[in-house]
Amino acid sequence: MSTESLRIVWIYPDLLSTYGDRGNLLILARRAMQRGVPVEVAEVRSDHPLPHSADIYLIGGGEDGPQALGAQRLLADGGLHRAVARGSVVFGVCAGYQLLGTSFFAKGAKCAGLELLDLQSDRGPSRAVGELAGDIDPRLGVPQLSGFENHGGRTHLGPGVSPLARVTAGVGNDGTYEGAWRGKLLGTYAHGPALARNPALADLLLRWALGVNNLPPLNDTWAERLRSERKTAVAAGRP
Ligand code: GLN
């Protein structure tokens, strides 16, 4: 494995960082460092240009107003598009997932997305709030998704993306599928934060960024305990 630093950018902490999504940054950085990979982290506020040379970009959730503003600023900036063209990894959660698509609704208005993923979001009949679980696309080699969702939008995938998971609890995109991925871009409705609850998903992003097929295993006892506790609660109807 190269000893070059892994560069991780947390996009717009001032706008898109609800429900503890910043924890995804901490988890990724820690899991890389535990494998001896040095990490450089940049938290880039929405009034700053986005560097296009990082290895991993993380975008979190947000309420409608900050989500619409974040999408406008990312479109105007263009840095994320340049990064994707260079092969960077992007992980978007909830609002950050929706804005990677072609369009989404915020405060009743249709907003332009970044068109990095072939999907669009509209509004659902009710807000989806609670536990979210699903069987992840077997091609990704990651066990069941475990998370928490809180969103009003529903997401419809085009032929250019694959669903991240088939829903077993909660709503996700539309009650049947949850999240989406294409190449090294991946989006999910799972907060939690998602990577704390899904260490194998964190390692997938790290493997994509580092260009390796395997990483040395870590002690994930606490995450496994949390996953099984939440699974039991969902099964008992107490999510
Ligand atoms: N504003 C979006 C929605 O309600 C995203 C919410 C979120 O990021 N939690 O669908």
UniProtKB/TrEMBL annotation:
Subunit structure: Forms a heterodimer with MurT.
Residues annotated as domain CobB/CobQ-like glutamine amidotransferase: 7-198
Protein residues bound to substrate: 127
Biological or metabolic pathway of the protein: Cell wall biogenesis; peptidoglycan biosynthesis
Active site positions, chain numbering: 94, 191
Keywords: Cell shape, Cell wall biogenesis/degradation, Glutamine amidotransferase, Hydrolase, Ligase, Peptidoglycan synthesis
Stored Pfam families: GATase_3 (PF07685)
Catalytic activity: beta-D-GlcNAc-(1->4)-Mur2Ac(oyl-L-Ala-gamma-D-Glu-L-Lys-D-Ala-D-Ala)-di-trans,octa-cis-undecaprenyl diphosphate + L-glutamine + ATP + H2O = beta-D-GlcNAc-(1->4)-Mur2Ac(oyl-L-Ala-D-isoglutaminyl-L-Lys-D-Ala-D-Ala)-di-trans,octa-cis-undecaprenyl diphosphate + L-glutamate + ADP + phosphate + H(+); L-glutamine + H2O = L-glutamate + NH4(+)
UniProt source species: Micromonospora polyrhachis
InterPro entries: Class_I_gatase-like, CobQ_GATase1, GATase_3, Lipid_II_synth_GatD
EC numbers, comma separated: 6.3.5.13, 3.5.1.2
Known function: The lipid II isoglutaminyl synthase complex catalyzes the formation of alpha-D-isoglutamine in the cell wall lipid II stem peptide. The GatD subunit catalyzes the hydrolysis of glutamine to glutamate and ammonia. The resulting ammonia molecule is channeled to the active site of MurT.
GO biological process: cell wall organization; cobalamin biosynthetic process; peptidoglycan biosynthetic process; regulation of cell shape
Gene: gatD
Protein name (Swiss-Prot/TrEMBL): Lipid II isoglutaminyl synthase (glutamine-hydrolyzing) subunit GatD
One term of GO molecular function: carbon-nitrogen ligase activity on lipid II
Family membership: Belongs to the CobB/CobQ family. GatD subfamily.
